[in-house]
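Practice set, problem 2.
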Amino acid sequence: MGATCAYAEEAEIEEVVSTQSRTEKPLSAQSGNLSLVKGEEIEFLGTTHINELAVRVPGVNISRNDGQEYLASIRSPVLSGAGACGAFLMAQDGIALRSAGFCNVNELFEAFTEQAERIEVVKGPGSALYGSNALHGIINVITPPADTDKGRISLEGGRYEFGRINISKGVLRENHGVRAMASVTHDGGYRDESGYDQQKVNLRHDYTGEDWTISSNLLLTNLDQETAGYITGLDAYKDRDIAKTNPNPEAFRKAKSLRYWSRFSTKISDNIGWQFTPYARVLDMEFLMHFLPGEPLEENSQTSFGLQNGFYFNEGSDLELIAGADFEYTRGSLEQTQENPTEGSAFLQATIPAGKQYDYDVDSIMAAAFLQGDWAITPKLHLTAGARLEYIHYDYTNNMVSGRVDEDGNECGFGGCRYTRPESRTDDYTVFSPKVGLMYDLSDTQSVYVNLSHGFRAPQATELYRLQRAQTVADLGKESLKSIELGIKGNEDRLSYTLALYAMKKDNYIFRDSDFFNVDSGKSDHIGADILVSYDLTDRLKVRGNVSFARHRYTFDLYSGDVNLNGKDIDTAPRHFGSMQLNWRVTDKLTAELEWVHMGSYWLDPENLHKYDGHNYLNLRAEVQIKESFGMFMRIMNLTDEKYAERADYTSFTEERYFPGKPRSLYAGIKANF
């Protein structure tokens, strides 16, 4: 069986990655800030949510909400709000899951992580090949190639009516390969009236000819989720009876997606390669915003067509260059409708009338040119440098009456309606982002590096056109992030390690101020260290651990009441977190792993007055190979049945509120090759 032995043994095979160059390159040649989770490890983990995988990557903190929902952090606080997702580029096979300007905070649930070839994580601003949204980092899910005629199936079940089937089958014919994969999941939910059904289907075709290599991929996903909301009250997650409750049984999320790409590669001459990738997306989502007064329904959709185009010069030589251009067109739409009258105070009832609140379309064009080079100055010293020039255009059309009025144009009491619709307009952003890095090989097994980079993101459409209160125009510029990173990495005998120190400064970050205006005057700094160490205690026993230390602070004058936030920690930004795994290959057929997950304390509010104390819990996983083509596996999540919160925050309306962690849960299953 693949996972039992391959993950435990981790045979000495050259690891390759593609995120930084769009072609496969050795991981050892990358200047440090890229982490890799291999397919064998992904299969062994059997994750039910992306955060179970993220705890193994230094610098990454995926905060789990309910069902498949989450908020992300990569060398950053856990970001929330309309444009929070714009700080990260989530991709599959190097293509963003959603268009720049149209991100969704939960979009990774539409990637096929369950059967990924590998997952690559870039921490800090992305390379010159990626533009808007690659601000704090990139998570890139790589689809396995159609390079086998074998099949694989796994069946598993677990607590709270969890059930899942994963299946894949390949076919090889001369220079063609086809691989079909599917994943079907049902989760009854730990909390009352919650749970989800999710289906993913992927079809991959690879062709290798004399002149051309062509790969094509079609991915379809569907999610039907009954969502549980926050529980409220100080330390409410510690009471199991309260933790199981669902204050919002009416909440739901439905999401469908279709993604297609074809990648064409050829050699124009002995030293010039050409690769171009046309792609398309069709996405549709609706969910009940149970966290807002009146519980409106959001319906959003987007259709995108794009092209990635690159020329590769002198691959394998001392001076490699990549030059290219990207283009993308997107048609996005959003409607927000409230079915029932608002409950609560007279103010809320008067300012949030039932009916349609937003209805707009946005046509977006992105065009970019980039250049990236890798120069072996000496056999030990490498210089990597690149730059990207990107243009983004939004053409916004308001399909309703403009202004701070209801859908019929009537004014609301108490000075006006809560939701404001700006007049139709256009917005344009042009950004230049450079990056340079040096890597020096101290020996055959150890290297040091330094990276300087500048990332950016354009405002998201919801930040520009989904306004509130008296704001009629959001005059927003781009967010920018300047980063410096120093690191060392090595792989010596039984020991491998990486240590990265970084300092970042963010300017013009977008937030909603106390007047409910979207503004871009925010400033913050981010200083930290990511450490990953793996050591083979014996030929069969290995320990691996990662830890992240960081401080994320406001660096501008912003008052909340009488409190100036300047210099205070940003909320939901733990100063330390990490995990450790003890992996034991008991026999050639049996592997077991004990995992410790640690989350440090963090502030719940910008004023730094309310705190979550953090948590620790254990997971146990095991897999046994019974026959050459048949095996069994099990995992116990939260082994010691700790009471903890997956996510905690604070508002003046609800005070402390939490998404509780699951109690101890057993999962077990079988898998077979055919």
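Problem 2, part (b): a different protein.
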Amino acid sequence: MNTRIQMHAADPAAEEVSSGEQCHPAESAQHDRYMIVPHGYSAGDSGQVWIADFNGPESASDAQSGGAVASPLRYWLRVEPIEGTAATLARESACRDIPVVFDRSAPGVGFTLVTLALLPDVRYRLSLWQQQESAHQLADAECRGRPSTLKDGFNVWYGTCFYGDADGGALSKAMDALPAAYRPQVSFLGGDQVYLDTAFSNTGWGASVIPGFSSRNFSPLGFHSRSKIRRKLNAVFTAEYLRNWRRGLRTKLRQGFHYFLAGDHEFWNDFPNPPGFLPTLWSRKVRDTWQSCARDLFDAYQLPSGASSSQFDVADALKFFVLDTRLQRASGQDANFTDTQTFAAATTWLRELDRPGVLVLPAPLLTRWQFRDGGLLKSLRVKLGLGDHSLADTGQYQDLVRAIRDCSQDLLILAGDVHFSRLARFDLGGKQVVEVVSSPLACLPSAVAGADQTLAVFPDRPTDHIHAEVEYLQAGSAIGDGGKRAANSCNNNFVTLRFEPGTVDGDVRVQILCWNITGCDAQQAPSVDWEMQDLVLRKRSVVNSETVPPIAPKDSATQTEEMSEPC
């Protein structure tokens, strides 16, 4: 682009374009319109950045997903290195300006996905600028290049289930106050970042009494044309995404790279199975249109890369696999939770793992099989759409269990969805498997739950005589407002994990903290609900692995190629 920006070290907020005109910080209305979200690592040392304009397309209810949003304005993304070793920063001492075109669209949003070349371990400030009569900054975010070593630690964040009406700004405050030592380089949002079914229900009479249940649950949408159904749904769904991205999740989404998994409420409860408590979705025509509208928005906001699973390595020490088990799930008992190719990639990753690994899921691996003999009432509730299918109820669960048994390395699983937090472990196949569960970020009032620690043996669904005794190490505290209901209600929470080198070469030490979002310590930071300081993931020999002794818990105290020019 022709516009060049001159940086001033003494006053970084005041910058000048080459014509000598003054640059201005974003006004609040403009700042609310635009957003930058770092979206995940890509090939090599690069990363993907999502940039959005929430003012287009012009009509949320009528717009279709598609191509570029026409605009006479000129935009660019500034990429500025702000922290790193002297040797690394010497390789990139100046910022870059990258032209931005909002070349994709969905109802209510124009967006693009930019791929950035990043240096390892360097922290970058990202800012979106607009050129009119002068240059204006519109949005900002931060990210860090993928580290080349664990020597300085690698911070991960995991959270699920954000019901915006119950948040009240608590998550933003918690993220602002989170101590710098725990700020994430990569975050996994494990599902239910929006509650589209509840948002629809809340537009009807009676929703103020029971959120998610109102006269709108019985709306005769099926009698309307598909185009009218789409207009009505797009209006509701777009408003829900805009509110959560521009308000409740905005502070979180500005910090580090993000991977998004789908929960059922990105569509409707227990998607893709018809929900019993939402009769308007009993119509096939409504379900198909609803799913199409919801998927368009999910792809625009949460999955612009189109990859429902992904994997990346951190240095030569740690491997990650992100597995979505909802987007491609089929309906009914024993249905597959993903396509054959994705599942083969996940099981191959497990069986070929040669160092400690982290498997990221939307929902727990340690869960009940609800269709066992003698469980007639529970299975009937699930079949009628009055309960949820667990991961163990799916057709690929047993093969996933077999792949985990065959894995030779210590494995840590991140999971959510169940509205409680928990830390558990078991020994299987000469290695340890640790499962960290975190949920919810902001709880739907009608879906509170206490920590389930009743599953004594893994797996609950019989699989090849696999039998591993489960040890529960930590569980989330109950809401402290008294009453019978509070005893079965976990506090809103998220977890952070810090990965560092272990004392033995190849081992990885993990510090896990579960943070109470609404509780504060003396420094006004979110309080620690529970923690585990001394977890070690071992790099094991395939032929000489051994069982790990139990751990003593501690008490809590696109634009595919960048075209850039220097500033």
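Answer key, part (b): The two ends are 11 Å apart (CA to CA). Residues 226-248 form the longest helix (23 residues).
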